[in-house]
Amino acid sequence: MSRFVIRRVISMVLVLFAISVLTFLIFQAIPNGDPAVRLAGRTATPAQIEQIRQSWGFDDPIWQQYLTTMGKILSGDVISYTQQLNVMTQIKQALPATLSLAIGAGILWLFLGVVFGLFSAIKAGRFTDRALTVLALVGVSTPVFLLGAVALYFLAFKLTIFPNGGYVPLTQDPIDWLYHMILPWCVLSVLFIGVYSRVLRSNVLDTMSEDFVRTARAKGISEQRVLVRHVLRNSMIPIISLWSLDFAAVIGGGAILTESVFNLHGVGQYAAESIQQLDVPPVLVVVMLGAAAVVVLSALTDVLFAFLDPRIRLTG
User: Which residues, including other chains, have CB under 8 Å from residue 217's CB and lie 6 or more apart?
Assistant: First the structure.
């Protein structure tokens, strides 16, 4: 077990290193992406641009610029090129909104995805199954920004049931926080509910044909107990793995469109604004945050599965 954990930690470090290098090099290769020009402003002279380039170290070799930037990120002393603000401070201010969105939506799409997927498998081939299949395909195919805009138009502008976007901290007013987050949770969850219900339906139908399920039924165990304790329990393993990756991706900025439509001022919206300005430090920090969340949760999931099923250790 210890060797399995060590292998996962080493692979996690290598993945984070590779992602940081690729992200840094992509911004270096963008045409007209010289940060010294953006820092100097439109009316700056070539001499002023060169002075900024030297003072910020933009004329250093590429590997040295990468090491300098990563050193500042690890120390928490990295400054954005355009806003001249501490990136870590900005992310700490934006993180509560993203966590609120991710946690609420994650619980919602997991619960409804399991309910719809299980119900669809039980009613396989019937009208209910076909109806849920159509709804799942519609949910997967509908862009988040379109669904969010439609929801805001009808539920916020026309009917005024929900507020027109914005974020209220949980510590300030829990009721108002919930009131502002219900609509973003529902909009973000639609895509995942469709995917999870289809995946679980397939897993449940496959598990129902396994020998251990037929043996449990032959022993006289009730159908409800067989479904919950044997079929659903084994079918949930890939769902949990998938949920951990999707949840981590949302935390790392995967909900950019949802945050932008509802004006939540989260990490994703902060990353989108930084990308528009070609501001490397905030984008690099957000990418590293998302990669770390995905890799760490994936590694924890692998370790948990290996602890529950020793066969995984041999193939991991």
Answer: 223, 226
